[in-house]
Write a structure and sequence with these properties.
This protein is an all-alpha fold. The chain is built from seven helices and no strands.
Amino acid sequence: MTTIFSRLSPDLHIWILLLLILAATLLMWRLAVIGKPLSIKGAAPCGIVSIELAWTTKKARQIVDAWNERGHLETSRQQTYLDFLFLLIYPLALSLACAMLAGTGSGLMTTVGIALSWFVLLCTPLDAIENVLILRMLKGNAGFPIPLLTSLAAALKFALIAVALGYIGYAGVTNIL
């Protein structure tokens, strides 16, 4: 099995990964700065993640209404638009890290790492779907099934990220030991 990075020189992998990590870190910082006012006790305690995982029309409308009352709808749109750039970067960073660690192991760890390097790329379309649906909710269309579909896409994305990070942590530690 191969990864999307197999045709690249292994010497380039670390440099590409470092560049992706730097870009992802800068974007995460910018998203955090933009999104700070979106954290509202009660309505949206986790900022934009609150609407990503609202699940119900009632909860989604509460969040949008709270942001609207405080004049933060434009802020939530800006953060969502910037996330379209972020979703092109972090899945590649996770994928490359999984691929690189898969190349250092053998057997099941290699197979899992290669598979994860492909599966984690599904974060890109999942995050894009989520963003498009969030923008619809911010325009007042928070009716069923939009919050449910948004939350399903977000939950799958977060699960993929968690599994990839778990693999990266485990494989990274076992390589050190």
